[in-house]
Amino acid sequence: MTDTEILYNDGTTATTNYDYSGYYDNTEDNAPSSFHCMALDLKEFGSVFLPTLYSLVFIVGFLGNGLVVCVVVKHRNSTTLTDICLFNLALSDLVFVLTLPFYAHFTRVNHWPFGEFMCRFISTCYHAGYFSSVFFMVAMTLDRYVVIMHAHRVAAYRTLRAGVVLSTSIWLLSLCVSLPAFIFSEVKDYGNCSLCTEDKENNAWEAYNIFATNILGLVIPMLVMVVCYSRIIPTLVKMKSARRHRAVKLIISLVAVFFLPLGPI
């Protein structure tokens, strides 16, 4: 309710009460459905670039990680703890890239035709694939650290059983972290389009999403990798061995693969 003062030509004034609450409360609800649809990549550039990008990442990721899975399975008789982590890292990437065809179609037509359950399921797989990839990268980093810096102390503990327990724990953790995506994802119908999105108006989800993505998925893994590799690389460089130098190059490549995609974020 707002008091509005009106000035008449004869110099007199009058105060009138106007209630604008209904106008503001219904502004978003009364917005045309095309407004909501335009808000999510209906621009010509986005509807072409994003589906193309998602498709390329899917093809390269599926073939590359599928090859890793096949190689590890083929040589499973000589599997080590590192191989188990690498195998699960490839599986994590596969889970992630398998969601991309759905998002490629979604961004191309700006419409989600797969239903409510698939919206929640694909969103959960997307988050689970991302977080499990990050967590397995951290696990491989810690494994490299203890092997190089404390080889004699941990040799007895780097067993296949330890690898299975570690992998199972990481998958369970990733699913727990991704569960809110299943809870808060939903399909919103705007008449001429349906969008698969999270509940942006839920403050709990927004706070959790920021924490999980930035702290669990970026800051903590980054700190672990920087600290570990800052200790590992000088140790390897001091060793006069071509094999050790190749290990340094491999480590730098792994760090680059982890950090470069985060640049645009």
Can you describe what's shown?
The structure is a single chain. This protein is mostly helical. The chain has a single domain, classed as Rhopdopsin 7-helix transmembrane proteins (Up-down Bundle), CATH 1.20.1070.10. It is built from ten helices and four strands, in the order E-E-H-H-H-H-H-H-H-H-E-E-H-H. Strands 1-2 form a two-stranded antiparallel sheet. A hairpin with a 5-residue loop joins strand 1 and strand 2 (13-18). It is a multi-pass membrane protein. The chain crosses the membrane at residues 53-73, 85-106, 126-147, 159-184, 207-227, 247-264.
Notable traits:
single chain, 265 residues, mainly alpha, Rhopdopsin 7-helix transmembrane proteins, two-stranded antiparallel ribbon, 10 helices, elongated
Q: What secondary-structure arrangement, pairings included, does this model have?
A:
Elements: E1 2-7, E2 13-18, H1 21-30, H2 33-38, H3 44-74, H4 81-97, H5 100-109, H6 115-149, H7 151-154, H8 160-184, E3 185-189, E4 194-198, H9 203-238, H10 242-259
Antiparallel strand pairs: 1-2, 3-4
Brief characterization of the structure:
The chain has 10 helices and 4 strands.
Number of strands: 4
Number of continuous helical runs: 10
Distance between the termini: 43 Å
**CATH fold name, please?**
Rhopdopsin 7-helix transmembrane proteins
CATH 4th-level superfamily:
Rhodopsin 7-helix transmembrane proteins
Please identify the top-level CATH class: Mainly Alpha
How many distinct domains? 1
Which structural category do the helix and sheet elements fall into? mainly alpha
Pfam families: 7tm_1
Keywords: Cell membrane, G-protein coupled receptor, Membrane, Receptor, Transducer, Transmembrane, Transmembrane helix
Transmembrane segments: 53-73, 85-106, 126-147, 159-184, 207-227, 247-264
Membrane topology: Multi-pass membrane protein
